[in-house]
Write a structure and sequence with these properties.
Number of strands: 12
Structural class: alpha/beta
Shape: globular
GO cellular component, one term: cytoplasm
Radius of gyration: 21 Å
Organism: Flavisolibacter ginsengisoli DSM 18119
Oligomer: single chain
InterPro entries: ATP-grasp, ATP_grasp_subdomain_1
GO molecular function, one term: ATP binding
Helix content: 25-40%
Order of helices and strands: EHEEHEHHEHEEHEEEHEEHHH
CATH topology of one domain: Rossmann fold
Protein name: Glutathione synthase/RimK-type ligase, ATP-grasp superfamily
CATH class of one domain: Alpha Beta
Length: about 325
């Protein structure tokens, strides 16, 4: 019997629906359940062929457990080693190398010194930074957000350098990105599961949260194909099995705005009934596929093209 586990936190509708959907298919020797952790020992596997990770980004204990599971043969979705290494600044930098349009972006040192450091710890950092050059490159209005954050936490819209200085002073030890504003005509949130299943969803981030999937636009067939290609390219290079990509369309060009979301919102109340049904069905089928393919005693992780090409010396594009 191969077990598919789902590791989750406060969410309820997606994990329970996922488990029910997998089990309802009646696949011989496949069963889904919530992951149960009552002990852990180095180098030993807990018996799951597949684990879908929905919470380790917030619980370091779980991330360590999942690395051990992956090391001992579990197909962890998403790869916990890559997830630990990734961040939004690297995301953007990689896109500049593989031909995906992104907003102009710079990274900023934290306003407050990190714990256990002193001014002398930053001997190589110029002070002040070349702020006028940075502002000229990014432009205003601009957005400031954590380089490793998510969920719209600590995100600021800034209209001028005076507002930047004020708000940056509120960010304490967070390392922030300063990013060009893309004034978009259309915006899309795009699921990608298994590096091959894509759902393009019109999305209006300027609406109240419960109305964001109620947008009054839809893509032309040509734009749909273009966005699908961008979503697949991003996920192939990053290596995520389960991710969302947000695309802002300006002057006909889809800009990748936010595309490192390996535990994206999948709750029924958040994404709406039709999108929820697609995510549950697609995730269930993909998890079953991975369980069938899983082989004991070897790595069953997904690695992206960036890692694979870098390891073999193949050019990125």
């Amino acid at each position: 019997m191969k077990k598919i586990g789902i590791l989750f936190g406060q969410e309820r509708s997606f994990p329970m629906a996922f488990i029910e959907r997998v089990n309802s298919k009646g696949i011989e020797n496949i069963v889904a359940e919530p992951v149960r952790i009552d002990k852990s020992a180095q180098g030993l596997n807990s018996g799951y062929a597949v684990i879908i990770d929905r919470i380790s980004q917030d619980v370091p204990f779980y991330r360590a457990i999942l690395k051990n599971e992956a090391l001992t043969g579990t197909a962890v979705i998403n790869n916990p080693f890559w997830w630990s290494a990734d961040d939004k600044y690297f995301n953007n930098s990689l896109m500049t190398q593989i031909g995906v349009p992104v907003p102009k972006t710079v990274i900023l040192p934290s306003y407050d010194l990190p714990t256990d450091t002193k001014p002398e710890s930053f001997s190589n950092l110029a002070y002040p930074l070349a702020w006028d050059e940075i502002f000229a490159y990014v432009g205003f209005p601009a957005y400031m957000k954590p380089y490793a954050g998510g969920g719209w936490k600590s995100v600021y819209k800034l209209h001028d350098k005076e507002e930047f200085y004020q708000k940056h002073g509120e960010t304490e030890q967070l390392v922030m990105l300063l990013q060009e504003e893309i004034v978009f005509e259309e915006y899309y949130r795009c699921y990608c599961i298994g590096g091959k299943h894509v759902r393009i969803m019109p999305y209006e981030p300027r609406n109240p949260h419960h109305l964001r999937y109620q947008a009054e636009f839809s893509p032309s067939p040509e734009r749909l194909r273009l966005m699908e290609d961008i979503v697949l390219r991003i996920n192939h290079y990053l290596g995520y099995d389960f991710n969302t990509v947000e695309l802002a369309v300006k002057d006909g060009v889809p800009y990748a705005i936010d595309f490192g979301n390996p535990a994206p919102d999948a709750e029924r109340a958040g994404v709406g009934e039709e999108n929820f049904e697609w995510v549950v069905e697609t995730a269930a089928n993909y998890a079953i596929e991975r369980a069938v393919a899983q082989k004991e005693g070897q790595s069953n992780l997904t690695w992206g093209e960036y890692i694979k090409r870098s390891a073999t010396g193949v050019p990125l594009i």
